[in-house]
Amino acid sequence: MLKITNLQKTFNAGTVNEKVALNGLDLHLKDGDFVTVIGGNGAGKSTLLNAISGVWKPDFGTVEINGVDVTNMPEHKRAKFLGRVFQDPMKGTSPDMEIAENLAIAARRGTNRKLVWGVRKAEREQYKELLATLDLGLEARLSTKVGLLSGGQRQAVTLLMATLRKPKLLLLDEHTAALDPKTAAKVLSLTDKLVNEGNLTTLMITHNMRDAIDHGNRLIMMHEGHVVVDVSGEDKKKLTTKDLLDLFAQASGKEFSNDRALLS
Questions:
Q1: In sequence order, which residues have a C-beta less than 8 Å from that of residue 20 and are 6 or more positions away?
Q2: DSSP codes joined into one string, 179-237
Q3: What's the confidence (pLDDT) of residue 206?
Q4: Domain extents for the chain?
Q5: Pick the CATH number of 2-263 from 3.40.50.720, 3.30.360.10, 3.40.50.300, 3.40.50.80
Q6: Predicted local distance difference test score (pLDDT) of residue 141
Q7: What is the pLDDT confidence band of residue 113, given thresholds at 50, 70 and 90?
Q8: What is the residue-wise DSSP string for 99-128?
Q9: Predicted TM-score of the model (pTM)
Q10: Hey, what's the torsion of the CAs at 64, 1, 179, 228, to 10 degrees?
């Protein structure tokens, strides 16, 4: 479902601020894979997601989604393949529009637009049913502006929007990092539910080592722009945080240095 080959990206090349963000990265995801991604600061995690979503073009290498080479495809055109949830709960939605209007926009992602009613009556009923599954009482608040929701409620709605049309690939960029622990756990539980029910191929960046171990069927660790640890199946289920730190040290020759990840 995702095939990344020899991906390279350097920012501010030839200057004192030169930064190699991706360094010959190779990554293949099968249909239905749920891969968690962890790494230190500057390891290239968010740069990887931006490369997949088309925020910028790589210096070298290719990105294929479901057999389609999207390397040079503009961001708005590859949106039909992707669903994405950002770390900031204020991103990914239109705060001045109603919940129903935001969901309607998501439902039309990748389709031709025409001049019709923004949200039809049948759609409102469908959205009520979908929102009820979140167990947050939002099914009774279809007309509420999204900007008035709490961070957790907003991330839940964004998750629903990102998965509404069953994307080929779901990208989760530390989508619980800005939430309190209780709300983060609820959003992660919802993530598991939506991913499993939809059999969605998913790439989830997290700063929490325990979450990286507990969720998904595969875990990768990044360092200096490439993958240094790749664990899946039964081996992943048996992992402890100490095992993960040891694997990273063996593969990179360095100790893992990310205070947020270690403290969490």
A1: 8, 9, 10, 224, 225
A2: S-HHHHHHHHHHHHHHHHHHT--EEEE-S-HHHHHHSSSEEEEEETTEEEEEEEHHHHH
A3: 94
A4: 2-263
A5: 3.40.50.300
A6: 94
A7: low
A8: HHHHHHHHHTTTS---SS-SS-HHHHHHHH
A9: 0.92
A10: -70
Q: What is the 3-state secondary structure (H, E, C) of 195-206?
A: HHHHCCCEEEEC
Closest CA to 95 of 159, 128, 152, 144: 144
Residues 6+ away with beta carbon under 8 Å from 37: 45, 48, 203, 204, 205, 206, 212, 219, 220, 221, 222
pLDDT, one tens digit per residue, over 20-49 is 999 999 999 999 999 999 998 889 999 999
φ/ψ of residue 173, rounded to 5: -100, 85
Question: Which residues, 6 or more positions from 129, have their beta carbon under 8 angstroms from its beta carbon?
Answer: 139
Placement of tokens 């629903």 in the chain: 160
* Structure-derived torsion over alpha carbons of residues 88, 37, 64, 81, reported in degrees to the nearest 10: -40
